[in-house]
Fold each of these.
Amino acid sequence: MSATVPLAERIRAVVRDDVRAMKAYPVAQAEGLIKLDLMENPFGLPPELRGELARRLAALEVNRYPAPRPAGLMAALRSAMDIPQDAGILLGNGSDELISILAQACARPGAKVLSLAPSFVMYEASARLAQMGFEAVPLRADFSLDLNALLEAIAAHAPALVYLAYPNNPTGNLYPRSAIEAVADAAPGLVIVDEAYQPFALDTFMPAAGRIDNLVVMRTLSKSGLAGARLGYLAAKPEWIEQFDKVRPPFNVNVLTQCYVEFVLEHRDVLDRQAALLRRERDQLYRALGELGGVTVFPSAGNFLLFRIKSTDPDAASRVFQGLKQHKVLIKDLSRVHPLLANCLRVTVSFPEENAAFLEALGASLPGGAEAVGSES
Ligand code: PMP
């Protein structure tokens, strides 16, 4: 095309129609706000560990490419996370990248991804980007799993990939283990149990990774204080890993992350203590929200809580969200994401001071204002 062709026209001619119609993944501006929107761990590395870590990072050969399959890091993960000896491991630049790799590897013409709704948005986004079909089975109104509907959808669509977030984001619940086993039994393709929130749920399918032919257990360190380092991993039969490894960009996990994660895994007790504190805080915040008039809070096995503003006004939750922001607290407004999430908001659990600030801001932002706090209306 000649240089006189307008840029917009060139873009139309080159970029896929569906990509041009997409919106980029929204991340809220959080400057100056208490950040309770993305399920990050609020704790940093303890100061006494930072000096040693800095020395190790400074000694890295950043002029060299990273190891494509870092044996030391994989061994450390296997031992720290109880990954069975007979399972293979695939590392990703966050589990987001693993989800894309699976889609790319399985995107045969007509192939489908199946999940539940509402659930983590990247299952659908990755399927669409890879030009796979995507189907979602709605959860029940109380967010429980309709196993029969899921089994019917598996029979109808024969999905290449079935994603089950365990516990689910954004609803926080775990499905019955027997249901997940039934899904793995029935599915013709892979079943990915996404255990992003495992440190807060403690329950896991990891012992079955490498044992059940079509089971993949996927995790991330993002919720354990390493969201910025970007490391996701999955465990499955080595024969699957061999295939997916061909799709993985060769140097996808950088040297700084490899070193950082190996160091942190040597101090696994720090991660465990932080997760234990957040589990206690979650349970306390759950009780406090339950005592607030004006909201319904849902039980959660993650480091977040989903709650609904009791109101017939469909904009009530969005107004509460804005009210919280005015009080310098950022959470996530899910009220327009899915019909089952009408008037729902999600808050990430933090340390006591931030949770208290959230509760106070919420009390002041609820319809009826601060008087709603403590009342059982
Ligand atoms: N799975 C689930 C269920 C999630 O909620 C998230 C992040 N919100 C991810 C995967 C992706 O995590 P990351 O890319 O940071 O590893």
Amino acid sequence: MNILFVCLGNICRSPSAEGVMRQRLEQAGLAAQVALDSAGTAAWHQGKPVDPRTRLAAQRRGYDLSLLRGRQVVVEDFHRFELILAMDANNLRDLQAMCPAHAPAEVDLYLRRYGLQPHEVPDPYYGGEEGFEQVLDLLEEAADRLLADIRGRL
Ligand code: 4NP
């Protein structure tokens, strides 16, 4: 199974989603069966490491995001990934606009799909430190539900 997490810049929310989920899969012994990646709808941070504020907040919870690098979503992603999970409604709209007809990917809003409130992961980029903690709180909750979903599909 292949899952892609998508936000705007691919330096805060979607790499965090990827890092949290990778740890959940490793703990569940399912890392070899599910491939994860993340990407941004914008190209601004292509090739750049994860935002240092995000990296630090993640590191404090035991997630290592140091090897991840930003990349932009490409049309081929809709053929490579079965599940593409957007962090907010703008990301979802942008993904839907570029999704080719008949592409196999299921594109959805991550938190809403798993019955969580709020439905969107708020963009922490221009805010304070608490925003980075909130992102991780939401993504940890979502990861547990995504893991349950994956177990049902494998
Ligand atoms: P992300 O956060 O979409 O969670 O990676 C952002 C990163 C960068 C910018 C905006 C949001 N930016 O404007 O550069």
